[in-house]
Structures are given as structure tokens and as C-alpha cells.
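Extended Data, panel c. Modelled sequence:
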Amino acid sequence: MIPRPTTVRPFYIVATADEVDPGTEPPVPSPKLLAAFGSTAEEIASFAERPFHTAIMAEAPIEQAATAERDCRRAAFAFAVEYDGIVVDASVPRILGMQREYPRLTAATNWFVFERDGDAVSTVGLRRFGLPELSCLDAAGPMFDAVLTGLAQRLLRDWPARDPVGPLTVTLRDIAYGYGDKSAGGEDPAFARSVDLTVAYDEAGKVLDVTLYDDPAQTLFAD
């Protein structure tokens, strides 16, 4: 079994042009770090124009991790809308902007990004739920990101009731849900196509190592 924290602490930052809540200034990511995790130059410029920062935080039992994260993010967006602010996800970190219509936040891609190093790929962001990040050392071909997205969707659905270590199956339906595809709940038999993998906990690296046994592009999409 993987180590399991007892609580989670969602944390967002809202940048505003005027000071809203005087107090301790929360730590904010540098522009270089924000750019590294996908924030655009325009977003970073908007962030820089808002020099005051308010922390939006919560704490909840690990069993309520998903609900706590969604509620905290929605609270951050509501604060940003009220004060013309920009929301920053402190867990990734990246600029989320200002949304006036709150998303459902059920897709796994709302919560993490990928980092690549040669043929290896890993997630950044799943630790917010008390999960180790996913890591796949041999992910040179197409569809590995999609499989990891589907796996993340499964883990977030089952965690913390089910430990993620061991053999697992990821289906096209898991992948579709992971990307927020509105057709994911449909009856297309192609959604049942699946790929087998194994998840092992790397205690030294504190990550979940993912091993795929087949080429996901062929297994999931070849006719």
C-alpha cells in the first residue's frame, strides 16, 4: 500500500489590482515557473498587473479530497469574479484565469499537467489529492499521455477507497472521461476497448511507476 495522508489542503491564490484582505502575503510562483507549466505570456502579464495576492485555502479529511478541491477552486473563481482577479493553482503551479461559468471539474485534466524528460512522462498535480504522481519511463510512442489521463481518472474515482498499486485496466471510456468528453457516457462499444497495465509504488522516488504491456495506439485504436 502507498503512504496515505489523513488530510488534504487545497490551496489557490487570487491576484487582484487592489488589496482586498490585508494580511500575510502568500508565496506566489515566479513568472518563469508559471511559463514552465503552460501559462501564456498574456496570462503572466495579467497576473503581474495584479500585485496583491489572497490565499484561498481549505483542509479536509482524505476521504473528502475531491469534494474539497472542487469547492476550494470554485471559491477561488468566485473571489476572482468579485474582485476582477486572476486565479493561480498553487499545486501545479499555473494560471487558471477568471471564469464566470464554473466548470463541473469532473475530468482528470482539470487537476494535473504532464512533464516530459526524453521518453519518460510524469504527472504534476495529483499530490493535491494525497496521491503520488504517476510516472512512465518508456512513453515514447503515441497515446501514452491518453492512457495516463484515463488512469488518473480511474484513480481519482476510486481513491482513497482503493489502493492504486497492482494490475489495472484502462478503457477508452476512462480516457474520454479523463478529457471531459461529453460523449463518454454513450453506448458506443468502442468505449470498452482497454489496455492492461501495472502500477507499482517507487518508495525512493515517491511516485507511482506505470508499466504498459502493449502499444496503446494499436490496442485501443487499431481496427
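The first strand starts at residue 7 and ends at 8. This feature is highlighted in the accompanying rendering.
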